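Bench notes, afternoon.
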Amino acid sequence: MYSPKIDERLIPELYRLKQTTKKPMTKMVNEAVVEYLQKCKEKCDSQPLQILKKIA
């Protein structure tokens, strides 16, 4: 299983947010990645021809 490393500069902010929200940092990072992927998918779905042109 691929386990990417979180940039060390992000850890203090994530830790502070963890203290405020009482959520585990891994859960917050997962939520952020899911949100990012959803936005990318929406963008791809709305402009599929431009993306295909960039790939070709």
